[in-house]
Amino acid sequence: MLAKRITEPFKHDRLDLSSIETKSKKRADNWQGTLSRIWSYLMERKGRLSLVILMIVLSSAFALLGPFVVGMSIDTFIVNGDVDMLLVALVGLGIIYVLHSVSVFLQHFWMVSISQKTVYTIRTQLFDHLHKLPIPFFDKRQHGDLMSRLTNDIENISNTLNSSVIQIFQSVLTLVGVIVVMLYLSPLLTLVTLTIIPLMVIGMKWITKRTGKLFKAQQEHLGDVNGYLQETMSGQRIIKAFSQEDRVIRTFEEKNQRLRLTGFWAQTISGFIPKLMNMLNNASFAVIAGVGGVLALNGQVTIGVIVIFAEYARQFTRPLNDLANQFNVLLSAIAGAERVFAIMDEEDEFSDKHGLDRLDHVKGEVAFTNVTFGYEDETTIADVSFRAKPGQTLAFVGPTGAGKTTIISLLSRFYDPTSGVITVDGKDITSVRKEGLRRHMAFVLQDSFLFEGTIRENIRYGKLSATDEEVEEAAKLANAHSFISHFAKGYDTLIDSDGGGISQGQKQLLSIARALLADPDILILDEATSSIDTITEVKIQQALRRLMKDRTSIVIAHRLNTIREADQILVLDKGSIIERGNHDELLEADGFYADLYESQKKKLLAT
Ligand SMILES: Nc1ncnc2c1ncn2[C@@H]1O[C@H](COP(=O)(O)OP(=O)(O)OP(=O)(O)O)[C@@H](O)[C@H]1O
């Protein structure tokens, strides 16, 4: 039973680790590039970095000096019985160790400040860049993964800069220093002491080979657990509505179990390192004492030198140990940094700025000419052409998946057509800056997204410079003022990002107010499908009419009542326009639209 439990995690790890190994091979190709990029961030704080390096050199020198003073004191003052000088040496030793502590404290203090500033810069740059990335980038990625890059991976860089970088520098310096001083004191005893190195390297290699993979697996499983946690938190309503709590808990249990097992083995095996080092340390101490003793009897070394060697041997194994440990940490931080830089290297959607039209003034004419588009290989929009004159309302209807939302995504340049041309006021929109184009548009979308903040801030999102009076004016026009006034804190009522405490209808009214405040030249309206009580529905329809008045409006309609007055209705099916005309013309044509209208009318009468 125990054997099964011990081998199981490895069976499982072997499966998982293959993918991690392939990834790490790819990483190896560009880890130098990643390191030099991290270095360039550090170089922005050259002054502090120089101080840290100075402190590392000083603390390493003090660490070497201590045992040297002890050894020399034994040979000169103790052997000769010079008590006064011995006291002086002891005071000197005290000062050396105090200075050592001060330099260690300062190097840590300055390095923490460098690393915090570095990750602050990286986090800010990453967040800024994420907001400039085009929609297709987000289509391809899990939100949990992006969150993990913004949090875990960056945190990893910070931790590594704090501890590993210093330790690696210090370890190398101490190693070199110890070997130089040992060679100076006794080349023969140095050789004997160094025989311990191959044993150490073999042991370390054996352990780190296993722990390296396990730590990576642990990181991946942690990402998996975090992703699942996030997904289940945001999907709470659906989970409860479909009574999926048990299944969700079981799945989490499996993921959590995998994390526990890899964590357990990673910690257990890496825990062998100090034990192994301790054992080799004791062995080297015995060898130094034995060989040193013989050499001392022959008068080749003094007792003081043996004491220095014994102490150095201890200092010698520690940096080797640290190097091996920190190397793993460093590799995992590099892997994290690569994931962060990979996002920063994604081309943002505003990189096409140069030489493009700013589109300052717009009348609002929108035209599609033979536009074809597909998200992947399949064609989603096929040869679509239409024209909306300034101020006109153009409505799209059609079955789900027909491509209505895709049309507005193309008009907003979230995607560009495969062929054909989209123009605003006769200008091809691919020759216009994206932000210049979107500045003229306002969106009222199905899932009226509200941000965490007050109602006032949420409406003001449409025009950040709006005064409180303008915000209230827009809310009044949107029929939102009366329900807002009923809240105890009115416009200062706090809402969370899920819109908790606010009904669907109220959310729609707030997003209409937001669009009214933006006062766009082109309005894009994706009508909500959710059914709303009749009074709110009347309020929404009235507010929408006000919003659409005198501006070009592209409407995706689900309730045909909304678009009876539209100048043009386009019926879309499988990406193609199959009917077009106004409400009366389409009823007369007695086609798809007429059928849809009749069926909606019957449904309304039945309820
Ligand atoms: N980001 C995307 N990546 C790949 N395919 C997509 C993407 N968005 C939509 N599609 C696909 O494109 C087709 C058209 O989708 P679209 O959302 O435009 O339809 P719609 O008419 O707006 O549907 P609905 O009325 O349900 O909102 C669908 O088959 C859909 O699966």
Automatic annotation (TrEMBL):
Signal peptide: none annotated. It is a multi-pass membrane protein. Keywords: ATP-binding, Cell membrane, Membrane, Nucleotide-binding, Transmembrane, Transmembrane helix, Transport. It is found in: Cell membrane. The keyword Transport applies. InterPro entries: AAA+_ATPase, ABC1_TM_dom, ABC1_TM_sf, ABC_transporter-like_ATP-bd, ABC_transporter-like_CS, P-loop_NTPase, Type_1_exporter. The keyword Methyltransferase does not apply. Residues 366-599 form the ABC transporter domain. PANTHER family: ATP-BINDING CASSETTE SUB-FAMILY B MEMBER 10, MITOCHONDRIAL, ATP-DEPENDENT PERMEASE MDL1, MITOCHONDRIAL. The chain crosses the membrane at residues 49-74, 86-106, 165-185, 191-208, 285-310. It comes from Paenalkalicoccus suaedae. Residues 51-332 form the ABC transmembrane type-1 domain. This is ABC transporter ATP-binding protein.
